Amino acid sequence: MHRRDFVRSLVGASVLAAAPRSFAQSPIATVAVVPLGPFPPAFLAEIDAGLRAELGVAVLLLPPSPLPRAAWYPPRRRYRAERLIDFVRPLVRPPATRVLGVTEVDISTTAHGVSDWGVLGLGDLGGLGCVISTFRCRMNTPSEAQVHFRMVTTCIHEIGHTLGLEHCPDTTCLMTDARGLVRTVDRTTGHLCARCRARLGLR
Ligand SMILES: [Zn+2]
Ligand SMILES: [Zn+2]
Known about the structure:
Number of domains: 1
Number of strands: 10
Bound molecules: zinc ion
Structural class: alpha/beta
Distance between the termini: 25 Å
C-alpha cells in the first residue's frame, strides 16, 4: 500500500534520478525502526537483517513506543495505519532519513473503495514514514519462517514506497500490490525485480 503526499515532490525525484550504486557506497537511506507496542526482539533482528540485505540501507533500532490512542479505530477494534504513520513521522531526525513503525496489532486504512480495509502495511509514497503489522503475516501458516518472510517482505515493500517506488506489475516482485492478502506476498520472490532495483539506483 502507499499514499501520495506533498513530501513526494521534495524527495521523490532526486531518489529516482540517482545513479547506480553499490552497497559499498553510502546507503540510500537510514531507516529508524520503532516498535509500536510489544514486539518480539527476534522479529526486529529479522527486519534489521532483511532491510540491510535487500536495500543496503542503514538501520537504527529505536526504543519501543506505546501505541497512540489517536490511531485506535473503535468500530473495528484495530488501529488506523495512516494515523500510526503520522505518529512515527516526527521520529525522522538525523541520522535517520526514513522511519518504519512495526506492530503486532491489526492495522487498516481506506483502500479499494472500502473505508476500513485491513492491510499488511502502509507507506508514504516518496515520503518519510511507513508502518507494518505482523497480524496478517501470521494468518494460515504454522511456519515461523513464513511469518518472517511475509513480515520482512512487507517491510521492504513499505520502505520501497517511501523511496519512491510505486506498485510493480511483476507479481513475483515484492513491490506487487498485495491488497492486504498474504497469499499475494507468498507468491513473490521476496526480492525487488531488476526494474525496481534500477529505479532505486541499486545494482
Ligand atoms: Zn504497496
Ligand atoms: Zn518490481
